Amino acid sequence: MKTRSKTIFLLIAAACLIVWSIVTIIPLYWMLVGSVQDSAATASFRPSMLPEAFSFAPYERFFAKTAAWRWLLNSLFISSVLTITNVFFASLAGYAFAKLKFPGSNAIFWVLLSTMMIPAQVTLIPLYILIVNVFNLGDSYTAIILPTAITVGNIFLMKQYMSSLPTSLIHAARIDACSEFGIFWKVILPLAKPGLAVLAIFTFVASWNEFFWPFLITNSTEMRTIQVGLASFVFAESTDFGAIMAGASVGALPMLILFFSLQRYFLQGITIGAVKG
After folding, report:
1. Which of 134, 198, 214, 261 could be cross-linked to 269 through a Cys-Cys bond (beta carbons 3.0 to 4.6 Å apart)?
2. Helix, strand, coil: what percent of the chain each, to 5?
3. What is its main location (predicted)?
4. At CA 63, angle to CA 60 and CA 64, rounded to 5?
5. Could you tell me the residue ranges of all domains in the chain?
6. Higher pLDDT, 215 or 38
7. pTM of the predicted structure, to 2 decimals
């Protein structure tokens, strides 16, 4: 009886997951279909789920009417820089909080964590005034990158992961007269590669998909990221649904490739830091 109940439960759970997956995939599928057919067919009151006339014209119009290549390069550059800075500085801070004992370490760590409770919208206006009026960095790469060059969430992630690494290796390295940075570079980082990979992927995805801050801080077309540029194109070309779908597909494609090629690291990100040594 127990086996039968378990089987029924698993079948119901599988059915629910399949239905939910279909519901989740439909918008993505419709975006791809809309990007390879005429705008009139995409905007039809009763749209077809299969392309009526397959065409790459929407992609041609999107790249012809916008600075899409510049937007893609901006997104790639900003996401890459943010990934590098977050991986380096967050791993340094995570190592310090996890393995080094210094006065006030716990208090500093909890103060940092408490800042995560503050909604980002609360700090947007002071941050904007600081970046634009005080430092005069508006409409620049520095203005987009600086506020999230390192985030508290990433520090917490690396602290939790590095807490699970064996402390005995650090003591052995100190006995061999290795400096603290040498221990971090030669001992900790090689052991922390899985955690660093998860951190890098999550940071890159978040940076690529970021919209509001780049939208707020940039004025010129040349400084827009692909997400901000696509939004401006939607406002300007609200009737060209095929080109809009093509632009959305172009913006989503790198993330889809990244997810399907590195999905095991995404799964590791769910449990990272959950097991302590």
Report:
1. 198
2. 75, 0, 25
3. membrane
4. 80
5. 59-271
6. 215
7. 0.85
| Structural contact between residues 123 and 216, judged by C-beta atoms closer than 8 angstroms | no
Whether the per-residue pLDDT at 276 is higher than 60: the answer is no
Distance (Å) of CA 77 to CA 205, 253, 263, 271: 13, 17, 23, 29
> Within a 10 A sphere around the Cβ of 243, how many other Cβ atoms?
26
Do the Cβ atoms of 67 and 222 come closer than 8 Å?
yes
- Rounded Cα distance, 9 and 96, in Å: 46
For 59-271, CATH number out of 1.10.10.10, 2.40.320.10, 1.10.3720.10, 2.30.30.230 equals 1.10.3720.10
Spatial separation of the C-alpha atoms in residues 27 and 124, rounded to whole Å: 31
Residue 13 token pair: 């759970």
Q: What is the C-alpha to C-alpha distance for residues 66 and 36, in angstroms, rounded to an integer?
A: 18
Q: How far apart are CA 22 and CA 24, in angstroms?
A: 5
Q: Looking at residue 43, what is its pLDDT?
A: 67
Q: What pLDDT does residue 24 have?
A: 87
> Per residue in 42-94, pLDDT tens?
666 666 777 777 888 889 989 988 899 999 999 999 999 999 999 999 999 99
Measured CA to CA, the distance from residue 104 to residue 46 in angstroms comes to: 64
